[in-house]
């Protein structure tokens, strides 16, 4: 059995990376070179097995912007997407959920029950939290997130029209489109 990685081990790894790090251009430097910031947003799960740097072979200067949260839901990332779109102009949004997602393993009610045990004085507030990201079907979850994204009154129509969804298969590495 392997031991879990510790924060100290991560900091040691960073020292090794920093020793050979090549500076990354600032926004001002990019502008002076005629380069633009990324215009593609990938919204995906926080699960380290679902890593877009891996399955798209992304490099630091590819300029792809990645948002990660439980299951890769749109709603928690929407404000950030809107802010970036007003600043740099996003061209495409890709929602990528994945097989064997942890969000399939628990329910929002289970999270609420546990939170109420931890902070019983906040039970009423906890009851009013609508979701913690649990899902029962990955494809449907993508469809639901596309509906949220495309129905937002703040998302430009051309961006909504260029928003797509995919399931990443942890076993095959393949992406399967999900119509939304």
TrEMBL record:
GO terms for molecular function: carbonate dehydratase activity; zinc ion binding. Keywords: Lyase, Metal-binding, Zinc. SMART domains: Pro_CA (SM00947). It comes from the Eukaryota. Its EC number is 4.2.1.1. Reversible hydration of carbon dioxide. Belongs to the beta-class carbonic anhydrase family. This is Carbonic anhydrase. It comes from Phialocephala subalpina.
């Amino acid at each position: 059995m392997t031991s879990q990685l510790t924060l100290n081990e991560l900091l040691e790894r960073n020292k090794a990376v920093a020793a050979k790090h090549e500076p990354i251009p600032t926004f001002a430097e990019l502008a002076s070179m005629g380069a633009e910031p990324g215009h593609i947003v990938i919204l995906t799960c926080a699960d380290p097995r679902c890593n877009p740097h891996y399955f798209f072979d992304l490099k630091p200067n590819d300029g792809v912007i990645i948002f990660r949260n439980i299951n890769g839901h749109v709603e928690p990332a929407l404000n950030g997407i809107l802010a970036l779109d007003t600043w740099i102009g996003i061209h495409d949004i890709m929602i990528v959920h994945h097989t064997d997602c942890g969000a399939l393993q628990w329910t929002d009610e289970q999270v609420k029950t546990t939170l109420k045990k931890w902070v019983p004085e906040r039970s009423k507030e906890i009851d009013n939290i609508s979701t913690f990201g649990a899902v029962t079907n990955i494809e449907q979850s993508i469809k639901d997130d596309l509906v949220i994204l495309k129905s937002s009154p703040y998302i430009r129509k051309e961006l909504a029209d260029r928003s797509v969804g995919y399931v990443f298969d942890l076993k095959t590495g393949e992406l399967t489109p999900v119509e939304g």
